[in-house]
Amino acid sequence: MADDLLSRSGKNTGKNSGKSGSGTEYTAQDIEVLEGLEPVRRRPAMYIGGTDEHALHHLVAEIFDNAMDEAVAGHATRIELTLNNDSSITITDNGRGIPVDPHPKFKNKSALEVILTMLHSGGKFSGKAYQTSGGLHGVGISVVNALSESLVVEVARDKKLWRQEYSRGLPQTKLKKVGDVANRRGTSVTFIPDPEIFGARARFRPGRLYKMARSKAYLYRGVEIRWACDPALINSPDVPEQDTLHFPNGLVDFLESSLEGRKTITEEPFTGEADFPDGQGRVEWAVHWPERDECFTHSYCNTIVTPYGGTHENGLRTALTRSLRDYGERVGNRKAEKITADDVQGNACAILSVFIPEPEFQGQTKEKLVSSKATRLVENAMRDRFDHWLSGHPEAANRLLDFIVQLTEERLKRKAEKEVGRKTRCRNCACPATGLTVPAARRKARSCIWWKDSAGGSAKTGA
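The structure corresponding to this sequence follows.
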């Protein structure tokens, strides 16, 4: 199978086993073939980054991102995220529903079972079913299935409801037709993480999941996310039992919520959206500069959070920096030429969201975007619009420029003071060989030269 993993076992079995030279003999019998989802259970860190709390919640993100892909593709308008009192979690969407008909290559299995039990299977490789998506490798839901003590999937398609149960990646029932449904469509997945993998005390954190649901609703204004949590699991006043998350203004609402109560350099943020040329996707952004306060950059690709940034953030940094430098040159502020990206973007609160076909991420957990084209696409789209924003808001632009230039001068001053301090420490630093500081060594050297000259002169005189 294409998803098999060859690995070297630490065991020796069979009559060919024995000692050979410096170690154990290595034969064909030592080669294991891990089939199906067994590689995931053996090496979960390869697929979800570990078995800690972060990895546990990544399971939810994998399923939720599939639902978001349906919404972004225009096939779903609603997603429900429910945290149940038995430690299970349910994600439901009203999209097209995973196909349940027999797979053409595996005729004894439904497409649903193929997707849930085979790595690198799914509808996102060709780009026909989804123009942009967060799921790319065809491993998301199958990995969740492999690492779940139990998983139940229900699919409503063509006015019929189907159901199948799994445990640790293996089907426990056949795909069953539950009955007819007139007003339901889409996919519902309920799962309980496997305590053998994550530990018996592993639990989902309602606050963390609620925050994720809110951020997803901000990222795509066309979706409504319904949150529900069993009251017994809530341990924070910031987490409601139920909520409906829908933000028509998207990232602008996101930024305003993040900056609530904080003073900013300009009254209005720099916000916008743009389509990339030749159908290469689109970008949305919202940027503000707070007054001497904590800053952040939240970036996303196809609604997937990229906490380690990447090439799309590079485009943002370059666009903001070059535009502000150019504006400074146009208004005659020569100090603007020393502005760096850290001065501009490092002191901003920015939210960046890109949608591109076939993005490239660093690792399966997709925490950093590495698509090289994203830098150029984002920079070109944002720089032109930031140029117009600065020119169209001269009062705000001048305040922003003065603020950034002041930060630049403070940075350069700190750098100069640090350099002076370093040179001072070096001058006062004793040489390990002689125990002398630099000034003392120089005085001794001058003394030696003077003595040598004096001694040489006396010798000549005596001669």
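The chain has two domains: 49-245, 251-412.
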